[in-house]
Write a structure and sequence with these properties.
With 401 residues, the protein is an alpha/beta fold. The chain has helices spanning 24-27, 31-39, 56-63, 68-71, 76-82, 116-129, 186-201, 204-211, 234-238, 249-257, 276-288, 300-306, 310-334, 379-382, 394-400, and strands spanning 2-8, 41-45, 92-102, 105-108, 136-142, 145-150, 163-164, 182-183, 219-226, 242-245, 261-263, 293-298, 338-342, 348-349, 354-355, 360-366, 386-388. The protein has two domains: 2-72 and 231-400, Alkaline Phosphatase, subunit A (3-Layer(aba) Sandwich); 92-226, Alpha-Beta Plaits. The longest helix has 25 residues, at 310-334. The chain is globular, with a radius of gyration of 21 Å.
Length: 401
Amino acid sequence: MKYALVIPDGAADEVQESLGGKTPLQAAKLPNMDAVVRAGIVGQSDNVPASMPSGSDVGTMSLFGYDPLKFHTGRAPLEAAAQGIELGPNDWAVRCNLVTILDGKMRSFTAEQIPDELGAHLVEVMQKAVADDPCWEFHAGVSYRNLLIYRNPTTENPFDSGTITTPPHDITDQAVEQFLPHGTGSQLLNKLMKKSEELFASDEKNLEREQSGTLRATGIWLWGQGNRPALENFSQKYRVQGAVITAVDLLRGLGRLLGWDVVEVPGATGYLDTDYTAKGQYAIDTLKSGADFIVVHVEAPDEASHEGDTAAKITALEKMDQEIVGPLHQYLQSQGDYRLLISPDHPTFLRTKTHSHGYVPFAIAGNGITADDAITYDEISAATGETFDEGHRLMERFLHG
């Protein structure tokens, strides 16, 4: 049996007045996703517990079949795993965004998609600033996505559940003062954020970007802290060997922690310009090479929602449908026994430009799945099907139910 999961990140949404009272999933032309529904079933799952912040770290952990209330420690440790950064039992990882804050408001949580080279340079600037303190390590990632590691030499934790931080993508165009880190250990994080503002304001390479007419990075934003999670190996838990295709570090890291192969795809960017065709072909090639289960994650719908761009969200969904879901489903059908699952991790509303709590639609087709009467893949159709109030239970239903 071959299995595949396709994740249109943040695809679930509200009805839009600009779309004639339809959601983006309803408005988009998705013949291949609709074909999966007609061949199987549609339903809805709630992947983010109400007591937890909505985000891909929580939503994908649940979607992969692990209860985030039990296993989730933070987003940054997953990204540390993606970079091969080992965390000791008392160490902490913290996500470090390069951001642009103007007039006290979060103008861009990506510093306008800052180039990798400049991003790495600014991370090195911060590393030099903490060179005298061996507890701190800055690690460059991709573009605005970077990490800060706190190497804790004692058993006394500087951070805990009382350390409150906020994802910068949740506060676009909002005043940042009320969202600065607070609670346990927050003074350490705020001190570094303040230092970055001073250093970036005088950095020549950073100022050159501003002089060219592009917003410069004004500082770092620290959030998503956590220590090393303890996750049961996926193949031991579900008796299926997996692999993941993604351009997002937190999913790479989660995949590695679960014992999956991480498949690198040229042209996969984690943004709207990602190479959809390559992701679809690499998914097929991975199954051909012997993997039992392939996960294909596409960040583009989520990024479009964060930018409030309805047209871009629809375009991303339609490209996923044509260049990933269609070819992958056709290949699976040609191989005999298979199951295919399509599901976002969480909703991301165009109206608020943020992640949200609530149900997301899923569709499952393949062997042992008796088709229901649904014909379209969208939130409205899904509300009439099976419901999983605990989203982490959907994986067992998909693989073995």
